[in-house]
Amino acid sequence: MFTLPKINKLIVNNFTTGRIKPSIGEVNRWWIMVLAVLLIIFDYVFFINQGFQQYSQQRSQEVSLKREFERRQHKAAILQVRRKNLKELNKRYKGLLTQFSTSKGLSILLEELSRAASANGLVFDLFAPLPEVAINFYIELPIKMTIRGRYEQLTFFLKQLAQWDKIVTIDKFELLPVFDAKQKVKREILVMKLIAKIYRPL
């Protein structure tokens, strides 16, 4: 059985007896191979591995930049849509302003309102402008009215109001019958109570 001391003794005997005679060239080649392996390991550790790390970092940076680009591209697309919507809203707003009465046109509109009622054979029992109310970008002028007339006259008057190119809204609308106190019967005449609201910009 071979033991470690026997193996060492055998190697020494072989070298001393001349059985194994390594030349200087063989020793040099062996050291060159060792150095080459060490250089390859060194190159991998300090250069190739470092290159892999840089590549991995750049790869993750590329993914991050791509996400950022997509996010900004999405925001730019939304911004274009919002600009288009804002332009459309401005256009509608300007169109809406043309339907508002101006300060000068307000008195004319009130005259037209009174004239329309008279032309339909209606009688004003009450025509009382109320205090103006400022709301956001416009001013609201409410007018409290009580008008007497037949049903068809009242409905035609309201139809005319709806066809005006200026904005006029109606609030607190009431339609009441008129009783003949002597005969205690309903007459054809009705009483219409309402608040008409006219608008003008601030």
UniProtKB/TrEMBL annotation:
On whether Electron transport is a keyword of this UniProt record, the answer is no
A Pfam family annotated for this chain is PilO
- What InterPro entries does this protein map onto? PilO, Transl_elong_EF1B/ribsomal_bS6
Keyword check for Transmembrane: yes
Q: Where are the transmembrane segments?
A: 30-49
Q: Which GO terms describe its biological process?
A: type IV pilus assembly; type IV pilus-dependent motility
Q: Which UniProt keywords apply?
A: Membrane, Transmembrane, Transmembrane helix
Kindly provide the name given to this protein in its UniProt entry: Type IV pilus biogenesis protein PilO
Q: Which organism is it from?
A: Legionella feeleii
The organism's lineage is: Bacteria, Pseudomonadati, Pseudomonadota, Gammaproteobacteria, Legionellales
